[in-house]
């Protein structure tokens, strides 16, 4: 009976595991193999060169600068996005005035606000990037942001937003937050709606205010959801390829001040003499960094599960 049970389980898992190995694991293995060669990607000729490509990226200043930009995105974008998501979700579900016998309620019009916050999710990254390019347009007559600043008497604050090395990366970060915060408003709202109202009622009877209720009740009960969101946003921040390529000046400019590793990988493979082997080594490095981030995040967020 036991052997028959295992054969039954293996029979169901064999095909999914085979597909996963072929479509997910195999490309990673092939990427590592390519990283050990000098393949250009344009001819079938390639020669094994060991870890020379890894030595090149270790001594490549542009690679480390791009990786630092990824780290900045990793530190800032998830924190700001999740913080806004939690705040708006709390206000839309718990932060309003109580109505009648309801112990907790969201602000008036919360259903409409959820739709508004979620709207960027239905737009593609390309549409969002082009939209914000026009908002950041430095032309004082066409750039939406500069026109607004000028009209309200703050003309001295107008900038070449994406052309200023000190502001360009921060502007792209702001767009990434705007594009993703709506998803987490809806995600956290779903999590908060599953928390029994009796818990909030007990907190109110104890005299807890909104601030205390959020940090002592809501946030601990959403810890698993927040940890998952952190990993997901971290992976988005580690990529950031589409936003930087579409919005930055000359693909990573000005002066490579917005360059990120995925974009550098793309340019190395398809523009800079087609160095596929070197680009593959950058891909392996990104894989290692992303896995370390995911493991550390899940490890640090591990805690005793709260049942309710």
TrEMBL record:
Keywords: Cell membrane, Membrane, Transmembrane, Transmembrane helix, Transport
Domain ABC transmembrane type-1: 67-297
Subcellular location: Cell membrane
Name the UniProt record assigns to this protein: Sugar ABC transporter permease
Coiled coil: none
Membrane topology type: Multi-pass membrane protein
Pfam family, one: BPD_transp_1
InterPro entries: ABC_transporter_permease (IPR051393), MetI-like (IPR000515), MetI-like_sf (IPR035906)
Similarity-based family: Belongs to the binding-protein-dependent transport system permease family.
Keyword NAD assigned: no
Domain of life: Bacteria
Organism encoding this protein: Actinacidiphila epipremni
TM helices/strands, residue ranges: 7-29, 71-94, 115-135, 167-187, 219-244, 276-298
UniProt-listed PROSITE patterns: ABC_TM1
UniProt entry tagged with the keyword Cell membrane: yes
